[in-house]
Amino acid sequence: MTRPAAPPSARPSHPVAPLLLLAALLGGLVVAWVYQRARIEALDGALVMGQQRLGLYASTIRAALDRFSYLPATMALDREVIEVLGGHPSQAAALSAKLETINAGARSASLYVMDRRGVTVAASNWRTETSYVGNDYSFRPYFTQVMTTGTGRFFGIGVTTKLPGYFLASAVRTASGEIIGSVVVKIDLETLEEDWGGGDGAVMVTDEDGMVILTSRPLWKYAVDGPVTTELRRKLDATQRYGAVPLRPLERQALLQLGETARLEQVGESAFVAQSQALDEEGWAIHYLADWEVMESNVRSTAALAGLGWVAFILLLLYLRQRRLVLKAKLDAKETLERLVAQRTEALSAEIVERQRTERHLRETQDELIHAGKMAALGQMSTAIAHELNQPLAAIQTFVASSRIFVERGDAETAGANLTMIDDLCRRMADIIRHLRVFARKSPVASQVMDPAASVSRAVALLAVRLRQADVDLVWAPPQGLMVAGDPGRLDQVFVNLLANAVDAVAQSPARRIQVDAMAVGEDVVITVADSGPGLTSDVADRVFEPFFTTKDVGEGLGLGLSLSYGIIRDMGGSIRVENRSGGGAVFLISLPAVGCEGLHVTHGK
Which of 292, 359, 277 is nearest to 60 (CA)? Predict the structure, then answer.
């Protein structure tokens, strides 16, 4: 009988080990380059943010001082003030009552009047145990300034109240111009520290002597940014500026100069990128210190991601190589099969048994080829989840930063609450990933009876930090008794998208306002999200729900938020549309079928 010719031997493939070694070396170079580049960009970003923060904090301090700058000068012209200082001490009680009323309206810390000797004759706190009335404050620098130049300003700890404050003084003059006393207002600046405490870095204000008078780090307060000299101790003791506060150095050490305006410093055990700005009128300086360890951690994470990306790239190349080998094996097997069939056909007339054996061998070969085809799996690209995870990750960063501060303060309860919020956000991030997969694959989703107002409130809580940083006025009064059928996690995602877009829309508006309303309209629940932004043009309004359509700059959005929201509301049996408001801005209207507890049903994605 005729035997089939043997198939040609396979060509030797290229060795894989040297290629993998070369890929590892290139990967190391890529990771090193990404690390250096990310480090430079992180530092540049920190410097830019530091300048912005310094300008913002300086404006905040100036606004807090300017708010009360008119008060002492105005009160110095008051007839009752002039009469009491001019020789009518019997009217001092009535003047104190008047000062009490004015101080409460102005919301200053205290307001008082001193005679030409520096003795307080009337004060807004005259009813309290720490009343200034009768106390001699002539040793304070602001009294010397006001008696010399007509005005005075001074920061220090109150001798009577033991509370810090900024003092603004203005001279009271007679008709002939003679100074007969002064009016002093005390301003509480410690409220600024509460606002500063929510930031990622640290901020502090030092006076002309280097004393830290305001700071977001409580442990730094009243430390001296510089040497504690005998002359400084004598100067502060003479004015009792900081009471009995012990003088101690801040232990601030410069490590590396970073350009002309910044440097790497170490304060205690922590390293910071420090930038400063002078407040010339007060003789102060404001310092912003960005956490160096946080930046380094972010840089390392970026480099790690680059390494993972390189590994994924190499795995993809290996997969393509294996796929090519499989395809070549299929072609070789096909050629072999055709040759075998031809040889078996020629021998069919001579040997029926050989033909049967050949046909059986053919079937076995075909089964092996089918099995080999099943083993060639194609990778599935994951859906774009970065867009939907950006805001929860930003919130987690904020909660982590605030938790660190609360732990340093010993506030374990608040830190624990923050960790609970972080846990909830992580769960929500898992839900978002599941929702994106459901949207992409259109898998069925089970519904439950839920309160849409609760979803709005959760979205507001998630974006609270961003709303506060953007200085947005959010108007939202949660109604009671509105129930719809849906997935709470997915509906949360819709309102997060709408509110985040509204924050972006009002960013350049003079009045940054967002209003959310929910009401029953017939058999539906209608939720509206309105903003005071510029509104939408007709072509943008027509395409706003299209996937990957966005009006933002490259890198600021993927254009998936509204598209996903449209799909979520559609799967819940509702509708979403957008229109411009007559008074300006845009409004998104969501309509969902209203249900009661007996109205629970299941909707299926199409």
Answer: 277
Encode burial over 115-139: b for 16+ CB neighbours within 10 A, e otherwise: bbebebbbbbbbeeeebbbeeebee
**Exposure class string for 493-504: b at 16+ Cβ within 10 A, else e:** bbbbbbbbbbbb
Q: Is 593 exposed, middle or buried (0-12, 13-18, 19+ CB in 10 A)?
A: middle
- Dist. CA 337–CA 503, nearest whole Å: 67
- Write the burial class of residue 559 (CB in 10 Å: 0-12 exposed, 13-18 middle, 19+ buried): middle
Highest mean pLDDT among 94-98, 402-406, 549-553: 94-98
| pTM for the structure as a whole | 0.48
Bridge partners, residue 204, by sequence: 215, 287
Helix (H) or strand (E) holding 271: strand 270-279
Q: Report whether 160 contacts 183 (CB < 8 A).
A: no
φ/ψ (deg, to 5) at 347: -90, 0
pLDDT digits (tens, 9 = 90+) for 160-174: 878 888 899 999 999
**Cβ neighbours of residue 282 under 8 Å, at least 6 residues apart?**
65, 153, 155, 207
- If you search the block for the tokens 């030797």, which residue do you land on? 12
Kindly report, residue by residue over 263-281, the tens digit of the pLDDT. 888 888 888 888 888 888 8
Angle at 361 between CA 355 and CA 366, to 5 degrees: 125
pLDDT computed for residue 3 by the predictor: 53
Residue 153 structure tokens: 């300003």
Q: Which residues, 6+ apart, have CB-to-CB distance to 253 below 8 Å? A: 265, 266, 267
Dihedral sign for Cα atoms in the order 312, 317, 322, 324 = positive
CB 64, CB 186: distance < 8 Å? no
How far is Cα 601 from Cα 594, in angstroms, rounded to an integer?
12
The predicted-structure confidence for 427-474, as pLDDT tens digits, reads as follows: 877 765 654 454 344 445 567 899 999 989 888 877 776 788 888 999
What are the E-state strand segments in 327-463? 448-450
Residue 290 pLDDT = 85
Mean pLDDT of 498-517: 89
120, 112 contact by CB (below 8 A): yes
Burial tier of 223 (Cβ tally within 10 Å: 0-12, 13-18, 19+): buried
Q: Which residue blocks in 67-199 are alpha helix, DSSP H?
A: 70-75, 79-85, 92-106, 141-149, 190-196
Tell whether the model's pLDDT for residue 600 goes beyond 50.
no
| Alpha carbon 314 to chain centroid, angstroms | 35
DSSP code of residue 477: -
How far separated are the first and last CA of the chain, in Å rounded?
62
CA distances from 74 to 1, 144, 167, 171 (A): 124, 20, 15, 10
585 Ramachandran zone, left/alpha/beta (phi>0; psi -120 to 50): left
Rounded-to-integer distance, Cα 65 and Cα 71, Å: 11
Q: What angle do CA 104, 106, 112 make, to 5 degrees?
A: 70
Cβ neighbours for 502, distance < 8 A, ≥ 6 positions apart: 514, 529, 530, 531, 533
Helix, strand, coil percentages in the chain from 3-state DSSP, rounded to 5: 50, 20, 30
Signed CA dihedral, 40, 41, 44, 45: sign only: negative
- Signed CA dihedral, 294, 298, 301, 307: sign only: negative
